[in-house]
Amino acid sequence: MSGPGGQVVILEGGTVATMDGAGTGLGAHGEEHASGHVVVRDGRITAVGPGPAPEPAPADGVRRVDTTGCLVTPGLVNTHHHLYQWVTRGLAVDDGLFGWLTTLYPVWGQIDEDVTGAAAAAGLGWLARTGCTTSMDHHYVFPSDAGDLLGAEIEAAREIGLRFMPTRGSMDLGRSQGGLPPDHVVEDIDTILTATAAAVDAHHDPGPDSMLRIGVAPCSPFSVTAELLAESAQLARDRGVRLHTHLAETQDESDFCAERFAMSPVDYLGSLGWLGPDVWFAHGIHFDDAQIATLARSGTGVAHCPSSNARLGAGICRLRDLRAAGVPVGLGVDGAASNEASSLIEEARHALLFARATGGPEALTVRDALHAATIGGARTLGWDDQIGSLEVGKQADLAVWRLDTLPHADIVDPVAALVLGASPPLDLLLVAGRPVVEQNRLVRADEDELRARALQQHRRLMSRARISGR
Ligand code: ZN
């Protein structure tokens, strides 16, 4: 073995769903091989196809993985999350968004570096265990004197081994100015812009082997001023990084934009420079036809978070219409405080079920759901040149799902077994060719230690916020 990522890994014997071709149209899902192979060398895919792998030249450090009984897919890509919320799960469990936020803002106002690091390690560890190889994170709560919160989650991603796109979020519209968050969790605009620029300059790696890209992500129209939105767009474009925010999660927010700005949420954001292929919005539940057409024309993406949206009773986004219009769509678990499961493969199933429940049986196919969870997510993050499908030359980010045990062995179609069946165990998860999960356990981190650390920080946070925890 020639060091991390330098090993040759040959996977053969099982089904391979490539999701290649990166087609944006409906029904473009790439080749599948009932019995196929994937070869990985130096962290990248060097061969993929039907039957056994081509015989490599004899060499040291060749690892053969028998994937018989398994399905090999691209690693899943998570396009919306708030990792710090891992330690604030199970609160306001029967509230809608605004009531839930009002309960949680005072708790989040007490987070610090230790809380954020422990929550991020646990959340990213669980994402890895459920097939995710790349996650973004939207962190927008920065209490003063809380320490280096972005640095803490970047360290957690390194510890687990995931590819990561944390975004420097922000809120500057406190309650006294007509916003929703209490004043003590908002920052002033100069502090935000300085810290955001510093985060990009310190951490962003735009290169082809990047494990870490930074984005810019003010929180939402009801917690951020128009000035901060416009300045954030300018900053992101100056530095060549991506832009993200929550949009149209509730009807209340659409009403807020109508009353305050006399515009739809998409037109309001568009008026501030927030449309284009470098922008993606979380949720987008309440877009009308005109807003969907604007998103499609501008190439703006959407992170669909079905479980969180259902948990908060916010509604279900018009996935069929977004995809039919050509809007890039990825899936997100959203923050753990509104999705206690935080499992990306569950989002694929929920996306399919909710799309059909609201849009009819043709709304989303099984393979559409896997597409959204993989290459669709990569496209939404602007990373589809490197990840999201199993193609020669791409990063070796892949998941090997075991489908020959009790819950799945009799399901005829392996892709349907993955999407419609119970969440399967993971035999192997590779990120840049490096094992992150083996035999359903994390490789680089100790799960018991992650659990204990998160529980300890949860207790500490609950006591600081004077709430009874576990
Ligand atoms: Zn969110």
Layout of strands and helices, then pairs:
Elements: E1 8-12, E2 15-17, E3 32-33, E4 36-41, E5 44-50, E6 62-66, E7 70-74, E8 76-78, H1 97-108, H2 113-129, E9 132-139, H3 149-160, E10 163-170, H4 189-203, E11 215-218, H5 226-239, E12 242-247, H6 251-261, H7 265-271, E13 279-283, H8 289-298, E14 301-304, H9 306-311, H10 319-325, E15 329-331, H11 344-359, H12 366-380, E16 398-402, H13 414-420, E17 426-431, E18 434-438, E19 441-442, H14 447-464
Parallel strand pairs: 1-6, 2-7, 8-9, 9-10, 10-11, 11-12, 12-13, 13-14, 14-15
Antiparallel strand pairs: 1-4, 2-3, 4-5, 7-16, 16-17, 17-18, 18-19
Helix pairs in contact: 2-3, 2-14, 4-5, 11-12, 12-13
Zinc ion (ZN) binds at residues 80, 82, 138, 246, 282, 334-335.
Number of individual domains: 2
Oligomer: single chain
* Class based on secondary structure composition and strand pairing: alpha/beta
Within CATH, the superfamily of the largest domain carries the name: Metal-dependent hydrolases
Would you identify the CATH architecture of the largest domain?
Alpha-Beta Barrel
The distinct ligands, each listed once, are: zinc ion
Question: What portion of residues is helical?
Answer: 25-40%
Radius of gyration: 21 Å
Average residue pLDDT: 94
CATH topology of the largest domain: TIM Barrel
> Which regions are unreliable across 5 or more consecutive residues at pLDDT < 50?
1-5, 22-26
